Amino acid sequence: MVFSYLKLRKQEWLTFASAMKIQEKKNLRHLSLDEIKQVLEEQGEKSFRATQVWEWIWQKGAASIDDMSNLSKELREKLKENFDLYSISVDTIQRSSDGVVKVRFKTSDNFFIEGVLIPAIDRITACVSSQVGCSLTCTFCATGLMDRERNLTHDEIFDQVVQLNKISEEQHGRRLTNIVFMGMGEPLLNYSNVIKAIDKISAPDGLVISPRRITVSTAGISKIIRKLADDKVRFRLALSLHAADDQKRSRLMPINQENNLESLTESLQYFWEKTGNRISFEYVLFEGVNDTLQDAKNLVTLCKKFQLIHVNLIEYNRVQGVPYKGLSFDKMEKFAAILEGYGLNATIRRSRGRDIDAACGQLANKK
């Protein structure tokens, strides 16, 4: 009995020690190329092996060290002793009747996020998430009803693009052409990881997707928009506007109370002056909320403060437990006609993926 007990205790300790060792492994993707070279040189490997590892990570999107097939098995085993990639994995795939694909991803620490593949005749767009959940509580958004668990790392954001690109190539025979940060979370509240992810996605030794084809959507955080300008980012920026007067916008988006339209206007003008990058306003139309003639005039007045602005009018997608209603397409066309009559460029964006809760504002990790 004593022997059996000690044997059991030994097994429990070995299991615990193994788990602790796994947790202590460093993320290989968080090392620079020079740091990878140093690690390999300490193991007696030639420096060119580091370039091979780098290419597997950032060009080929390897999900594990075992995927690095041009490295010897011995070297892979050595790397696995101290390192992991902590890649996200595909948990569930849903396909809409209109061709949209929604993917639920699982992180290495068992959180879930969602990404969407949106195919069109002239482009294939990946919509990616930047956080697990969201902290902004926008009153019309399913993600806003969730808690924010944590920020995604730059490599987890990168993984979404890799996985969605893989689905695009398998189903459409084409690579992604565009990326939008319009999934779960507020990208500017995860600034460093979003910037690092875009650097890897657009780099010559990465996925080589032009930053001009990447759009970051924000609910509007004035000081961080200014930081984007000072950092001279090259991607496009979209502001989730939804109302052009502070009272209405604050009801829809509580963040407006600390980042009102005046401060946002100043920061966006600064962004334009520093970068020359395209800015767009995203405007979801809610029946009886932001769809009046006065709302249209307020929007025109705001847009006239910018040299070049584009307005995307977006259909509202129903969210369970939320009281808002969307406009009919005819009413949306009338609203767009008012804007165009004042000389604004406005496009109506038809919702896609509604039947699988993949449309704008619907991502919420439903099972």
Explain what the structure shows.
This protein is of the alpha/beta class. The chain has 2 domains: 2-84, DNA polymerase, domain 1, CATH 1.10.150.530; 89-356, TIM Barrel (Alpha-Beta Barrel). 38% of the residues lie in helices and 18% in strands. The two termini are 46 Å apart. Mean pLDDT is 91; it is low at 1-8 and 10-22.
- The CATH architecture of the largest domain is Alpha-Beta Barrel
CATH class of the largest domain: Alpha Beta
Counting DSSP E segments of at least 2 residues, the number of strands comes to: 14
Average pLDDT taken over every residue: 91
CATH superfamily of the largest domain, please? Answer: Aldolase class I
Task: Extract low-pLDDT stretches.
Answer: 1-8, 10-22
Shape: elongated
Largest sheet: 10 strands, mixed
Structural class: alpha/beta
**Helix content range:** 25-40%
> What pattern of helices and strands is seen along the backbone?
HEHHHEEEEEEEHEHEHEHHEHEHE
Q: In the residues, how many domains can be counted?
A: 2
Proportion of residues in β-strands: 15-25%
- The rounded Rg comes to 23 Å
Strand order of the largest sheet: 3-4-5-6-9-10-11-12-13-14
